[in-house]
Amino acid sequence: TDKDGRFTITLTKEYASLYLQINHLTYEKFELKLGTQTSNLRIALVPKTNLLQDVIVKSKPKVSRSNDTISYDVGSFAKEEDRNIGDVIKRLPGMEVTESGLIKYQDKTVSKLYIDGDDLLENRYGVGTRTIPHKMVKDIQVLDNHEHYKVLKNKRFTDDVAINLVIKEEAKLKLTGQAKIGVGTPNLYDPELNSILFNKKVKMLNVLNGNNTGHDLSGDIIGANQSSLLAKFGSSTINNLLATSTTGSPNIPKNNYYFNNTGSLNTNNLYNLKNLWQLKSNIQVLYDNDRQNNASNTQYLLDDGDVYFNEQNHMKTARWLGAARLSASTNTEKKYASNTLSFEYEKKDITALLANSSGQIEQFQKHHIKGFSNLFSYIPQLKNNDIIAINWSLNYGNKPQTLQIYPGVFPEILNDSIPYKSSRQQIEVPSFFTEISTGYRFNKGRIKQYYQIGFNTDRQHFNSLLTIVDNEQRVRTLGDNTRNNLYWSRSQAFITPQYSWKTNRFETQLEIPITYLFTHYEDVSHQLATSKNSMLINPNLKARWQISQEDYLQFNYQFAQDIGNIEDIYRGAVLRNYRMLSQNNAALNESKKHTFNLNYNLARTLKVLFANAGISYTRSLSNTMLSSVIKNNITENILVNMDNLQDRWSSQIGFDKYIFPLASTLKLKGSISYFKYNQLLNNALVPTRSMSYLFQPSIEAKVFKSYNISYSGLFNWSRSKQQGLDNAIQNKTTTMMHNIGFPASPFKNGFMRLNLRNLSTFQTNMKNASYTFIDFFTRYKINKWKMDIELEMNNLANIKNYRTYLMTANMISQNEFELRGRTILLRTVFNL
């Protein structure tokens, strides 16, 4: 109708009779037979009231999809108990957060965490998920098949996953933060002060905190990027050869067994300039002092008789960690340019008192990481829409380390069976690496082409010396067999053609790196001088078929040839720990590996359902094998020339579904893995097979109004079998974990949660282990003062010792760890 209520209906045919009928929810039905008068009709509708008997309001979580981006509305998934954005991410369908803070989507690791499109935290995003309040965030966007460089978007194959936190407009207006003060028993402290500002021009997240409650903050500095100097030098075998203990870590949260005193400063600041350039600084410093008490009983099942190792460890560690990264970058659709300068530092001192069947052993271990790196990238788009890329990287790092043991070990090998005062092992492996490359990308044609050429060089010096101090306090060297002065250099020239093809539903990429290597190493003291030329071709094929708008099948095949490193060829003996000597007697390791992966990802965004399934197979063949000679109180590891074939396959499945009637997310995850390999034990070749089954369910459901119940579980069945000896040996381990929680909000501004966690282990021929931990948490909000009061009580059952089993086909190890016992912490949180 028009503004006066007039309307006109035009007919294209003549009819014998016509009826006009009007239906409306809030008016009585109107019907009129039209006669000869077909104009100037006046219609009056009679209002009608409909009485609804029952009204049921069901709120559905808001999840939407746009191409490869899924958006979760934070307000739809957040619960009363949540404080930070990490708490919300944990319960999102399709998402997973590990204990270390690593985020996964559909079983793929999240590479970046953006904050309104800016990469403030890089790969050290754990501090962000733990600190950013969820009330600041409007949406959590998952960017599947993400391309970080805007100039390369839709121009190359990518399967990366990133997350973008969309900040609410009102949260951008001012600087916010929190001040936390926590004290408790026994002698606990947990203070924190943080400041947050996320607007278009400036983003900052700065945290000053400390604790002795078992909360490990080192991951905020080392991060998930294993190419960082702290990660590489701190954990790689080349640079981490010495140890004071052979006992690993238990399969429980670290705060249960981590006796720490930690202080940390974490500053992250980003500035967007008017010329589209961005300046960023990430600076972290941490001091940590911790202690650990554990005991282990290890049994090696060998054809020539079983060997036993028993030890009790009391360790104290003092550590400084520091990292500083300064970067300038621009990332537009026409150009990407960046330069990042990093400095990283670690100093660690360990004092350990060990008791075994031979008596007491004192150990002192020190290491000192110092290094820097610089990374430059320039990727512009040319006028013809082709793209060039120029990259240059440079890094230098060193980790001098020492291990001193009182009294001296292995006297029958090192001192003609005469007991002596102490053994001292020194190692230093300074490393220098630089690489420069350039590439050209053709964007025309159905098949996109990219060609990269480059050169890199690697220089290392493996310098080690094992000395003893005899009973007359004299420091003695033991000849060339216990020293290394190995110089290593490797240069590579490479060309990498890359071809990609894309249709509406299918996308594939073939990459064929061709590398020429020249390797030279020499150690005059061992008459070792070798040069080797190698040509490596390592093709990599990726393909993705978009079955529907939300489902896709992805395939990956990679053939990798590798030439070993400096760790494979040092000849002098190295005292790795109080019961292990290690050296090499083989040529440089050469390996070939085939890897196949097939994954299917399914999503139904409107139904909030996500599922994935995958299988993988890896076959590797190398020309060296580690030979272990195990005797009472000593293990000798020697790398020898021998064909070494390994087969590994695995399959996994994941299913996440939001259940609307329960306002809950059901998560199911399972995997099967099989590993076939050979071991060289006491000069006998032992074929070994291992099989593992893993199942992890979790759900949280609303029981009544503000009362919920949650459950998460873990079931792990492991089987390991050794063959080829007189009697086949088979070990079986079953591990179960049940975690039941009762979250509730019984009154306004109040929240409480009771947690029961049971862990049980069943091991062949060993005593079963079962533990039940009880934790309680409550929070009360005082809105008038912008303050929260929290009470946290952990391990109410006061369990102070925890036993685990580590099992392989030929080894059973029982480890026992001291736990923190019952703790009570009262915390006040001020919202600034």
Multimeric status of the protein: single chain
Radius of gyration based on Cα positions: 32 Å
Tally of separate helices: 6
The low-confidence runs, each spanning 5 or more residues with pLDDT under 50, are none
Helix content: under 10%
Strand content of the residues, in percent?
over 45%
Q: Count every beta strand, where a strand is a DSSP E run of 2 or more residues.
A: 45
Return the average pLDDT rounded to an integer. 89
State the separation between the terminal residues, measured CA to CA.
Answer: 56 Å
Question: How would the global form be characterised?
Answer: globular
Helix-strand category: mainly beta
Q: Major sheet, described briefly?
A: 36 strands, mixed
Describe the protein in words.
4% of the residues lie in helices and 63% in strands. With 832 residues, it is mostly beta strands. Among the domains are: 63-172, Ferric Hydroxamate Uptake Protein, Chain A, domain 1 (Beta Complex); 201-290 and 316-382, no CATH class. The strands form three sheets. It has a 36-stranded mixed sheet that branches. A hairpin with a 6-residue loop joins strand 18 and strand 19. The two termini are 56 Å apart. The model has no long low-confidence stretch (mean pLDDT 89).
Please sum up the structure shown.
The protein is mostly beta strands.
Task: Reconstruct the topology from this structure.
Blueprint lengths: L17 E7 L2 E8 L28 E4 L2 E5 H4 L7 H7 L3 E3 L5 E3 L2 E8 L10 H6 L5 E10 L13 E8 L8 E10 L2 E2 L2 E7 L3 E10 L7 H4 L6 H7 L23 E14 L4 E24 L6 E25 L3 E22 L2 E22 L6 E12 L2 E6 L4 H4 L7 E7 L2 E12 L4 E23 L5 E3 L5 E20 L3 E6 L2 E10 L4 E10 L2 E7 L5 E12 L10 E4 L2 E6 L4 E15 L4 E23 L2 E26 L4 E18 L2 E21 L2 E16 L6 E16 L5 E14 L5 E14 L4 E8 L6 E7 L3 E8 L4 E9 L1
Parallel strand pairs: 7-9, 32-35, 34-36
Antiparallel strand pairs: 1-2, 3-4, 4-8, 5-6, 6-7, 8-9, 10-11, 10-12, 10-45, 12-13, 13-14, 14-15, 15-16, 15-44, 16-17, 17-18, 18-19, 18-20, 19-22, 20-21, 21-23, 22-23, 23-24, 23-25, 25-26, 25-27, 26-29, 27-28, 29-30, 30-33, 31-32, 33-34, 34-35, 35-36, 36-37, 37-38, 38-39, 39-40, 40-41, 41-42, ...
